[in-house]
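ugh ok so i messed up the first submission bc i forgot one of the chains. this is the corrected input, ALL of the components this time, i swear. 256 residues overall. if the numbers dont match what u have on ur side tell me asap before i send this to the collaborators (the ones from the other lab, u know who)
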Amino acid sequence: MNESIHGSGADEFLELKHVLRALGDVVRLHIVSVLAGNTEMNVTDLAQMLIINGRYVSQPLVSWHLATLRRAGLVQVRRTGRQVYCSLDRERYALCLQMLGDLVQPAALRAAPVISPAGQPDLSPARQ
Amino acid sequence: MNESIHGSGADEFLELKHVLRALGDVVRLHIVSVLAGNTEMNVTDLAQMLIINGRYVSQPLVSWHLATLRRAGLVQVRRTGRQVYCSLDRERYALCLQMLGDLVQPAALRAAPVISPAGQPDLSPARQ
DNA sequence: CCGCTATATAAATGGGCGCTTATAAATGTC
DNA sequence: GACATTTATAAGCGCCCATTTATATAGCGG
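and heres the new structure output, hopefully the right one now
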């Protein structure tokens, strides 16, 4: 009952912070970029596809960064035998984008309120 | 001429990283949130409006966080006398959102190409 | 069981970040 | 000029993060 009222609770900012910090690294941005172009990928293939400053990224480092992304909920993993296939959680990623958007333009403003701007019929509940 | 071709150059990731790290802090998220609701604001008023864990944020800390956001290009400042009015650079913020979007869904896919939507000779995305 | 492969974890290290306290710099007021 | 106000910067500190190297876990094939 502390933050109450509107949605800008501290918890929301805390969660957003975690996701942003997980994304705020060049190696992890590359990982996300590669995962975004493939439905699934095992760790070794991913590591061999990551060339960042003209250098490969070592396997333990890829594993460590993947753990960070997984902790942030951005990457899901599926074990099969000794391989671990990882994929981008696009829903979570989209949620992050939405939270970032809401931060500067609260949902209350985006969802066209009651009043329609006298030209367009309001399309309020069209939100997905 | 190093990275050429597609937009996923290392520099882009580096810049995105800087912005994401600037945003990846609870205090700075609050600052952005407050600035998003006001066109302009001097530092003292901003500090007095920031209550984060039930505690105020000290003036030097606000100034320090503002410097971080300014370095990332997310806030602009305008001096008038001894006050410094700061505002959110919404364009830059939107650019960040766009870069994040492009990361998982390259612009080539989003920008509906030349083909007219007439008959839908289905080709590219079909993806949700 | 033994080796091989795939992945994760530990230890060690360097560096940067967030915070506090104190102080400086700049500007307005009397 | 003395003083108050606004903002920035410096020093110090603890902590977390990114990286490397080395090693552990676990499945697989002979």
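quick check: DSSP finds six helices and three strands in chain B. that seems consistent at least. Chain B touches chain A at residues 8, 10, 13-14, 16-17, 20-21, 23-26, 29-30, 32-33, 36, 52-54, 88, 90, 93, 96-97, 100-101, 103-105 (CB under 8 Å).
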